[in-house]
Amino acid sequence: MLNKIVELLDMIKFQHTVFALPFALLSAFLAAGGLPPGRVLFFILAAMVTARSCAMAFNRIIDARFDAQNPRTAARSVPAGRIGLGAAWTFTIVMAVLFVASAWALNRLCLYLAPVALGIVLGYSFTKRFTNLSHLVLGLALSVAPVGAWLAVTGAFAFPPLLLAAAVLCWTAGFDIIYACQDIEFDRRAGLYSIPKALGVVWALRISTVLHAAMAGLLLGMPLCSDLGMPFVVGVIAVAVLLAYEHWLVKPDDLSRVSTAFFTINGMVSVALACVGIADILLT
Predict the structure, then answer these.
(1) CATH code for the domain in which residue 215 is found
(2) Which of 81, 128, 198, 262 has the largest CB neighbor count within 10 A?
């Protein structure tokens, strides 16, 4: 049983929850003007974890055939046979039910929008089959997090979480383009779509740079429409330096450090930005 749990967590790359979760927490603290109620914070965390787990498990199921053919992904739990399709489907359905239950526990608007959120995060898995813009759809899927957290606290839409969501979209699409550079040859053979496949590595990395610059610009606009101040601006500048380092690591003729750029630096970006933002809210 323990081995099965470990395999399930590996299947969904549970540690990568760190990408979107900090932005959801930052949005929740912004919406509350401080520490959100404990019950609300608990169900925001539950909704975040279950939605992402559902989406990742679904992606592994839908992409199992392609993952088995790609040397980079052939060792994943589903194509390697360590997790059967039945177990993966069961896990996906359970996570979807728990996500809807978490949304229900938050408020009526969150419940009504839960199917929309699931449609976005699950729908991403099909996009590489027909569009080069799949990276932007992945960005949209992660950008749901700050909007959902704001709705969980306030029960109403507002401009700050939408601006934060736009920043998350640009950031996610940018690092996903970098990651996709590893699979250009496989995408060509398999008939899959991506910006690196369509435009080549050089232009893909340039587009990624533009998206990350756009993210920094959007984040610098947050103090204009929220309680965030100069500490957050300093945090954004630090994040911009991290992203610049990420782009320095990855060269068109040397993709050997893509994993460092993708996992380590982007995890640092989200956690650092959330910590600075939350500290700014609580201490000023």
Answers:
(1) 1.10.357.140
(2) 128
